Amino acid sequence: MTDGQRILYIRKLIKKSQQDFALMLGISQAALSDIENEKNGISYPVFKRLVEEVGIHPYWFMWEQDPIFRDNSFHDKYKISYKDASPTASVSASATSKKATGKKSGVQPEVTMEDILKELTMLRGEVSKIKQEGKKSR
């Protein structure tokens, strides 16, 4: 799943309109639409609100590792079962997710927002390089 697809999936899962979800994220409905349609990526402030306000687990958003929500209080808040909030349960762990945990056992190390920001910055840098290489080859 792309970032936009994950945002759309979460919005549908918690049964929010684009307008309501945009308000939760502190952005306009048009900005949310652009993210969902892959016209724009998400900024760090939006990612932070997804984690802190909406309750999305950063590992799920970045590497599609279960669980989707950080804790059960968010399942209760949105009235969804763990089973319903587990689109990646049938997906095996990718090489990226194994790298992210540092262990094949699936034990997750303690992660801070600073760690996540560093990882996102690194990934965005790689994406920028790929885009620049694509423009040069045209």
Can you characterise this structure?
With 138 residues, the chain is mainly alpha-helical. It has one domain. Helices cover 59% and strands 0% of the residues. The protein contains 8 helices and no strands. It has helices at 3-13, 18-25, 29-36, 44-54, 58-63, 72-78, 95-101, 113-136. α2 crosses α3 (29-36). The chain is globular, with a radius of gyration of 16 Å. Pfam families: HTH_19.
A few lines on this structure:
Helices cover 59% and strands 0% of the residues. It has helices at residues 3-13, 18-25, 29-36, 44-54, 58-63, 72-78, 95-101, 113-136.
Number of strands: 0
Element-by-element helix/strand order: HHHHHHHH
Any idea what the shape is?
globular
For the biggest sheet, the summary is: none
Counting helices, strands and paired strands, the structural category is: mainly alpha
Average pLDDT score: 77
Q: Low-confidence stretches at least 5 residues in length (pLDDT < 50)?
A: 88-105
- Rg measurement, Å: 16 Å
Query: How far from one another are the termini?
Result: 27 Å
Q: Note the beta-strand portion.
A: under 5%
Q: Helix share of residues?
A: 55-70%
Domains, number: 1
Number of helices: 8
GO molecular function: DNA binding
Protein name: HTH cro/C1-type domain-containing protein
Write the layout of secondary structure elements.
Elements (H helix, E strand, L loop, with lengths): L2 H11 L4 H8 L3 H8 L7 H11 L3 H6 L8 H7 L16 H7 L11 H24 L2
Helix pairs in contact: 2-3
